């Protein structure tokens, strides 16, 4: 990666869709890190440029449990990094930062 390359910010449904379509078209597997976390303040998600991550749909995954539907992020203090999660159809999911995944990067202009 070049010195101007960072983990990507996904700030619109169109960009989210474009990345998803690229992953599917090229048969890429696994989950992908994006450039956001809530490390500084638990539950307060920010992109690397300091802007806030949009909450809810159409970005964050929803999954079911025995007690009902659960909206991501739901990992608490143990899951502080944001990924496009293959097990959640490439919606946002909070995961442990120690996991090994691919990355979606962008070049800063």
From TrEMBL:
Top-rank lineage group of the source organism: Eukaryota
C-type lectin domain ranges (all copies): 1-106
Pfam families to which the protein is assigned, alphabetical: Lectin_C
InterPro entries for this protein: C-type_lectin-like, C-type_lectin-like/link_sf, CTDL_fold
Name the UniProt record assigns to this protein: C-type lectin domain-containing protein
Organism expressing this protein natively: Scylla paramamosain
């Amino acid at each position: 990666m070049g010195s101007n390359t960072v983990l990507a910010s996904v700030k619109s449904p169109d960009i989210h869709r474009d990345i998803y379509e690229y992953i599917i078209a090229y048969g890429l597997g696994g989950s992908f890190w994006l450039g956001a976390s809530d490390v500084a303040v638990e539950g307060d998600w920010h992109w690397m440029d300091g802007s806030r991550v949009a909450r809810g749909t159409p970005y964050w995954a929803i999954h079911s449990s025995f007690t009902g539907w659960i909206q991501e992020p739901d990992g608490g203090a143990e899951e502080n990094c944001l990924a496009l999660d293959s097990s959640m159809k490439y919606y946002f999911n909070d995961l442990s930062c120690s996991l090994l995944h691919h990355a979606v990067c962008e070049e800063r202009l």
